[in-house]
Amino acid sequence: MTPPGRQLALPLDLPVLYRGEVLADPSNAEALAWLARIEGWPVGRLAIFGPEGVGKSHLLRLTAARHGWRVLEGPALRGVPEPAATVLDDADGFAEEAALFHLINACAAQRLPLLLAGRHPPARWPVTLPDLASRLRATAAVGIGEPSDRLLATLLARHFAERQLRVPEAVQEWLLARLPREAGAIAAAAARLDHAALAAGGAVTRGLARAALADWPGFEPVDDVSMETGASPSLSALPLL
C-alpha cells in the first residue's frame, strides 16, 4: 500500500502533457473560478495546492500560455529574478528562500500577477525568513482535490479516441479500477496500450492490457491468462514503451 502523501512510483517516465483545455470537475472548480478573475487576486498572488498528480502543472502552464506569462520552477529559482508576470511550479520546492522572497517582492512592486503551485498551502511552507513567511501567509490559496471518477473516465476515453483506439466500455472500466488516479498515468497507459495493440494487430482487451502494463501495480500476471477476456499467450512478449 502506498504511504499517505506519497505518489505511486511507476516503473516508467510519465509523459507531461500540457495541451488541451482543463476539464471542469468538482476537484478543480474553485481553482478555475479563481483563475477566471485574476484581477481579484489579493495582492496580485494566487497559490494552487494539492497532492501530486491532480493537474496543478497542467493548469499553471495553460494559464501561462493563455496570458503570455513566463514559467519558472521552484527548484531552479535562484538569485534575484527579474520582474515579470510569472507562474512558479513546484514553488514549495524552492532552491533559495531569498530568491522566492525577491520574486514575490518584484512582482508586487510592478503590480504583476504571480501564480504559485505546491503540495501544501503557502502558509505551511517550511521557511525561516520572517518576511517571506509573512508574504506567504498573505497569499490567497485554493486547493485541487483528487479527480472524480467521471473525470478520469473522460480522460481515458479521450486518449483512446485521439489514438483511434476502440476499447470496449467494460475494458475501460476494468482499467480505471486498476490505474493510478492521476492524469499522467492515464495518458501513459493509453500510450502503452496503443503501442501494444499495434504490435499485436488486434483490439485492446483485458489480456492485452494486463500484458502491456504487467510492470504496473494492479496488472500483475494471473495464474491462468486464458481466463482473461481476449487473452493470448503471445502477449507476454509484447514490447513495452
Describe what you observe in this structure.
The protein has 8 helices and 5 strands. The chain is of the alpha/beta class. It has a 5-stranded parallel beta sheet, with helices on both faces. Helix 5 packs parallel to helix 7. The N terminus and C terminus are likely disordered.
Mean pLDDT over the full residue set: 84
The major sheet is characterized as: 5 strands, parallel
Could you tell me how far the N terminus lies from the C terminus, measured between alpha carbons in angstroms? 25 Å
Q: Roughly what percent helix? A: 25-40%
CA-atom Rg in angstroms: 21 Å
User: From N to C, what is the helix and strand string?
Assistant: HEHEEHEHEHHHH
What is the number of strand segments?
5
Shape: elongated
> How is the largest sheet built, in terms of strand order?
2-3-4-1-5
Number of helices: 8
User: What fraction strand?
Assistant: 5-15%
Uncertain runs with pLDDT below 50, 5 residues or more?
1-19, 224-241
Structural class per helix/strand content?
alpha/beta
